[in-house]
């Protein structure tokens, strides 16, 4: 049975309210202030954006985007053959304390709560878009992962997925902090989309509009210290932070149903739907805030991008990285191990 989650109505902000852990909504004037400042969303070009740490993250938080995030979750689950994670936890060796950074709609955290009923799962995010009813072992907290992490306990599993555009530098913003907040032997796993549009068989012309567009978005977001082109830095970032047994696995996600292989054809169809719903969300704030374009100009630019994304004569794909590594035990001499694996379409 699912129970009301801890953020509704008791919104709890890690960085602002460390004690008491759960502010009393009836007695605490701070609670009122914090709650309204978190939910007074920025409205811009017809979309809403997080209010806490306003401007830090450039993608919307409205219902339309939440639906897309859930759809993207199913696409990725399909890509990974239904696996929730690759860090070596199982029903026989379940995680005990799990942290999901940038949990979004909380869908992974909820699935983890169901999968591992004895584990305690905490999902954190800048914005309170998590569901009202969740498994009893799942809670959500409002927290900015770019600030100092002040969790009171150590975790044995820290997870993040699709944080492109959210962080500046994976090693400093995530890996080093996760290392400090993991028990020895605990695992960090990052699952990340690499936005660049790529192609292996020369069917993509250099001026292919989706490629040109994503390259421009990548340059724009990098100039604001929120790079979309970041997944390829994760494995080295983990090693540099001290993790061992680091494995990097990369997948290809076709941009539409061009592949012959049935699984990837289906995945491409799902991913095309993800783009159809998401391309405006990915583009609007970066191109408005950084490039100074207005909504109409951006929507006009997107006409050719959308056409390109549905063009099956171009065999284009994006890469998806899954990287996991272990915090060594005290005194453990790390072996220079670690693997890189690539799946093909
Ligand atoms: C693309 S969504 C991914 C959500 C979820 N991990 C998933 O895979 O469905 C990125 C999430 O990161 C959150 N986020 C962005 N910057 C953050 C920060 N500095 N601290 C915590 N969460 C952040 C956003 O609010 C958003 O919900």
UniProtKB/TrEMBL annotation:
Q: Name one GO biological process term.
A: methylation
InterPro entries recorded: SAM-dependent_MTases_sf
Q: Does the keyword Transferase apply?
A: yes
Does Transferase show up as a keyword for this record?
A: yes
Q: Please give the Gene Ontology molecular function terms for this protein.
A: methyltransferase activity
Domain of life of the organism encoding this protein: Eukaryota
**Name assigned to this protein:** S-adenosyl-L-methionine-dependent methyltransferase
From the broadest rank down, the organism's phylogenetic lineage runs: Eukaryota, Fungi, Dikarya, Ascomycota, Pezizomycotina
Q: What family does the entry list?
A: Belongs to the methyltransferase superfamily. LaeA methyltransferase family.
- Alphabetical UniProt keywords: Methyltransferase, Transferase
């Amino acid at each position: 049975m699912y129970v009301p989650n801890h953020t509704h109505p008791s919104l709890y902000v890690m960085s602002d309210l460390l004690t008491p852990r759960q502010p009393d909504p009836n007695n605490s004037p701070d609670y009122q202030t914090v709650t309204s400042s978190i939910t007074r969303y920025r409205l811009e070009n017809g979309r809403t954006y997080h209010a806490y740490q306003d401007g830090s993250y450039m993608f919307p938080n409205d219902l339309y985007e939440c639906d897309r995030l859930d759809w993207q979750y199913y696409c990725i689950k399909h890509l990974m053959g239904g696996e929730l994670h690759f860090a070596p936890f199982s029903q026989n060796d379940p995680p005990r304390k799990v942290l999901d950074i940038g949990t979004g709609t909380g869908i992974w955290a909820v699935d983890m709560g169901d999968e591992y009923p004895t584990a305690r799962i905490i999902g954190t995010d800048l914005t309170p878009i998590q569901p009202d009813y969740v498994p009893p072992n799942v809670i959500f907290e409002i927290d900015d992962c770019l600030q100092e992490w002040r969790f009171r306990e150590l975790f044995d599993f820290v997870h993040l997925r699709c944080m492109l555009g959210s962080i500046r530098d994976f090693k400093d913003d995530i890996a080093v902090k996760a290392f400090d907040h993991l028990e020895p032997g605990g695992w960090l796993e990052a699952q990340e989309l690499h936005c660049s549009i790529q192609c292996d068989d020369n069917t993509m012309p250099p001026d292919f509009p989706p490629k040109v567009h994503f390259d421009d978005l990548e340059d724009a977001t990098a100039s604001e210290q929120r790079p979309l082109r970041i997944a390829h830095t994760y494995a080295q970032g983990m090693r540099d932070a001290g993790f061992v047994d680091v494995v990097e696995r990369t997948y290809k996600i076709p941009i539409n149903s061009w592949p012959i292989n049935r699984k990837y054809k289906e995945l491409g169809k799902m991913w095309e739907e993800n783009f159809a719903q998401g391309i405006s969300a990915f583009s609007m704030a970066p191109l408005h805030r950084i490039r100074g374009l207005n909504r109409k100009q951006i929507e006009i630019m997107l006409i050719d991008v959308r056409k390109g994304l549905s063009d099956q004569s171009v065999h284009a794909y994006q890469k998806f990285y899954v990287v996991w590594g272990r915090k060594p035990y005290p005194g453990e001499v790390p072996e220079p191990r670690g693997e890189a694996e690539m799946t093909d379409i």
